[in-house]
Amino acid sequence: MGAICSSLAVSHSSIAVSYLSSSSATSFWHYSPNLIPNIIATLPTYRAGFSHTTLQVVGCRMMKPSSSSPPVSLGFSQSGETEEVQEEVVLKPFPASLSISPALLENLVYDALVWSSLNGLVVGDKSVKRSGTSPGVGMVHAPFALLPMPIQEGFWKQACELAPIFNELVDRVSLDGKFLQDSLSRTKKVDAFTSRLLDIHSKMLEINKKEVIRLGLHRSDYMLDAETALLYQIELNTISSSFAGLGCLVSNLHRHLLNQHGKDLGLNPKRVPGNTAVRQFAEALAKAWNEFDNKRAVVMFVVQPEERNMYDQHWLSFLLKEIHGVNTIRKTLAEIAGEGQLLLDGSLAIGGQIVAVVYFRAGYSPNDYPSESEWNARLMMERSTAIKCPSISYHLVGTKKIQQELAKPLVLERFLEDEDAAKLRKCFAGLWSLDDSEVVKTAIERPELFVLKPQREGGGNNIYGDDVKEMLLKLQNEKSQEQAAYILMQRIFPTASLSYLVREGICHQNNAISELGIYGAYLRNNDKVIMNDHCGYLMRTKDSSSNEGGVATGFAVLDSVYLT
């Protein structure tokens, strides 16, 4: 068996290629039916010097332990020329001739900033006190990549094809209350936030509360692994899947820039796919409102007290009114606790207005529940006849622990037909509970190959590198039940490429990696599926040295796709 590449790190003067030697170890479970029986004994690193800083990075050959193929040859000459490489998949960041002069770069940045200001690609400026509470105060352009990120069209189509299957999976798993409770039972004992969510879920089971009309607005996030040339799922978001509004604007921005400067760049604006996420999300909310069948009812956005990403949300509410004639209101959990009431027929009323659909853009973090009032508000909404997006069941399906449980052998097949289950399994990275002592042992020895994930959403919570080792040893030494609050995930190594990232009006040139999110909308009324579609996309790009990837948390910038 040959060697397989585990990471490609691009710098201004060199490419470092690190690889796993299959002669000395067996790689992750997606190369083998066995779950990580033996992990790498060595991780040699080779460096090749270059005389140029503009590089074309080629992808790695996908290898399996059973393969008798020869090792991958990654031959780079000292002059910076790429020698011929025998490969199955070639990943090309941009045309090799792409060159941006200082004058062109200055024009691109200027045009992009003007376009962003004129078209509402904005967020609240954190340096302005009222920017998170008062619309129109302290606006600044959202952070964005100056040019779209290339991705092979085959991977793009694969991700889009998976969205309706994931939508259906969420719905079916949500109906199995026992599976959710059993899977999260140990997590409940050590994670107070998950415990409170499960308590609400238990109460809904006890009163036999049925969600007849079920609405999900999801986003499945992926990275393209350079080691295997496979698309792997990072996570599935079932609550507050943000940036449908601003993400569409970045796609429009990039098409505008390529229409203006595409000839100079050698890029075709038609290769940036249209992004309909915000329109389709608005359509799904409007259809749900219509199923509720009360023309005077409203869609309620549940929001945080301070929200600098409010304009992403306002794009959605604007289209709901402009296209579908649906009125919206915005309330915090505290305001809902103070103003809300359940009517005798189970309807939810806020300030005298009946709520048809509750759309959560808050409620996914413990910080959203500073007192019992916020928890009471969440329970009141769940008890009501309003359509919840998401319901408490949908919310729980999106937890990290459920993601890990579904990756176990034959679990996915409980909920999906074999053909659909097989399609999803192809995008599953390695996922393990901390009960797997062999995997934990390997993660302590080689922490750089894993990510330790708690049951949290919103970015900035995952644990990487030596911190993985320290936390695992701490949990072992203390024999703590707290290990049930975490899962281990195989770390994915995407290819880094030269990118131009614009923040606060300043363009930074960085080696960057990207994460592709595909939105999905699902609406069902009893046995009738009204909507089950993929709904546009979100591309986020970040400095390759950054572990986390949230835009709102300041780690990444908004981007779009360039199909190759």
UniProtKB/TrEMBL annotation:
Residues binding ATP, per UniProt: 235, 400, 453-462, 464, 489-492, 515, 542, 548
Cofactor: how bound: Binds 1 Mg(2+) ion per subunit.
Binding site for Mg(2+): E235, N237, E457
Reactions accelerated catalytically: gamma-L-glutamyl-L-cysteine + glycine + ATP = glutathione + ADP + phosphate + H(+)
Coiled-coil parts of chain: none
Top class in the EC scheme: ligase
Annotated compartments: Plastid, Chloroplast
InterPro entries named in the record: Glutathione_synthase (IPR005615), Glutathione_synthase_a-hlx (IPR014042), Glutathione_synthase_C_euk (IPR014709), Glutathione_synthase_N_euk (IPR014049), GSH-S_sub-bd_sf (IPR037013), GSH_synth_subst-bd (IPR004887), PreATP-grasp_dom_sf (IPR016185)
Gene Ontology terms, MF aspect: ATP binding; glutathione binding; glutathione synthase activity; magnesium ion binding
Cellular component GO terms, alphabetical: chloroplast; cytosol
Enzyme nomenclature, EC number: 6.3.2.3
Binding site for substrate: 219, 239-242, 307-309, 313, 361-364, 540, 551-552
UniProt keyword annotations, A-Z: ATP-binding, Chloroplast, Glutathione biosynthesis, Ligase, Magnesium, Metal-binding, Nucleotide-binding, Plastid, Transit peptide
Matching SUPFAM superfamilies: Glutathione synthetase ATP-binding domain-like, PreATP-grasp domain
Keyword Repressor attached: no
Family to which this protein belongs: Belongs to the eukaryotic GSH synthase family.
Alphabetized NCBIfam families for the sequence: glut_syn_euk (TIGR01986)
Protein's name according to its UniProt entry: Glutathione synthetase
